[in-house]
């Protein structure tokens, strides 16, 4: 992977996760970004600064797209680009003190090379890419079942579910049930572990980049709700699903 030291990145994730665990009993600085449901804390910024510092130190020629704006202004995917979500599930971090993740994606010239998702409070780490496979807590990812939608649990973004965007309630009724965690990282982990077969959500690039690399490597379908290919820099309404469930999901989501 052109000089990428995976073990070094795994070490950064362990250190970042411990920083987050240690911070849970502290008072937080919390501010709004786009509104009352879109929050950022001092720890979001601290973790992103920590990751950016290390990337700059060891990979000075690379560019960085970070949710909190610490990195670069990335408008194309030439060269190697790191896409960072320092705390995915910030509201959960604030309110629940669990169900949040740190996510890193490494993309070279528009090709996903390696994705990392760390579920901090459960110490669940999934990482990998097309050249190395996918690993869960140090072991090859176990196989998942390619279930039909009717035999599957599905995960849906809560705002999309509340507003029934793109017929997501029909998708729910066609499945075994809906699970909503409001953390893309943990939703991707459950999808990769076979605990659910479909994930539908509104996502920014840092929300889906790592999960996309891991899902595509593992044979899980990834697209916009319309069935179009994903980019790396656009915010999307996306669907990620095992192959048989994907076909049914796309039909329902695009039903007129």
Q: What is the spatial order of strands in the main beta sheet?
A: 3-4-5-6-7-8-9
CATH class descriptor name of the largest domain: Alpha Beta
- What is the H/E string? HEEHEEHEEEEEEHHEHEHEEH
Globally, the shape reads globular
- Percent of residues in beta strands: 25-35%
Number of DSSP strands? 14
Proper CATH architecture of the largest domain: 2-Layer Sandwich
Average pLDDT number: 97
- Structural class of the secondary structure composition? alpha+beta
What's the number of domains?
2
Tally of alpha and pi helices: 8
Contiguous runs where pLDDT drops below 50 for at least 5 residues: none
User: Could you give the distance between the termini?
Assistant: 44 Å
Radius of gyration: 17 Å
CATH superfamily of the largest domain, by name, is Fructose-1,6-Bisphosphatase, subunit A, domain 1
Helical percentage: 25-40%
Pfam families: Inositol_P
Keywords: Hydrolase, Magnesium, Metal-binding
Cofactor: Mg(2+)
Organism: Paenibacillus oralis
């Amino acid at each position: 992977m052109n000089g990428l030291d995976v073990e070094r990145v795994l070490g950064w994730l362990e250190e970042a996760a411990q920083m987050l665990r240690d911070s849970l009993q502290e008072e937080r600085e919390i501010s709004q970004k786009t509104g009352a449901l879109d929050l950022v804390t001092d720890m979001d910024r601290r973790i992103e600064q920590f990751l950016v510092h290390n990337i700059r130190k060891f990979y000075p020629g690379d560019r960085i797209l970070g949710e909190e704006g610490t990195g670069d202004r990335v408008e194309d995917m030439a060269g190697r680009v790191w896409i960072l979500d320092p705390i995915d599930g910030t509201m959960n971090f604030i309110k629940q003190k669990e169900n949040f993740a740190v996510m890193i994606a490494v993309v070279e010239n528009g090709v996903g090379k390696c994705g990392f998702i760390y579920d901090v409070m459960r110490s669940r780490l999934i990482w990998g890419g097309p050249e190395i496979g996918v690993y869960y807590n140090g072991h090859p990812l176990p196989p998942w079942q390619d279930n039909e939608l009717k035999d599957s649990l599905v995960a849906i973004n809560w705002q999309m579910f509340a507003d029934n965007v793109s017929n997501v309630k029909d998708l729910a009724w066609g499945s075994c049930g809906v699970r909503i965690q409001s953390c893309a990282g943990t939703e991707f982990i459950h999808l990769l572990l076979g605990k659910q077969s479909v994930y539908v959500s509104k996502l920014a690039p840092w929300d889906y980049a790592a999960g996309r690399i891991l899902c595509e490597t593992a044979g899980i379908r990834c697209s916009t709700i319309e069935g179009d290919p994903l980019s790396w820099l656009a915010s999307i309404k996306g669907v990620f699903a095992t192959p048989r469930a994907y076909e049914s999901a796309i039909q329902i989501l695009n039903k007129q």
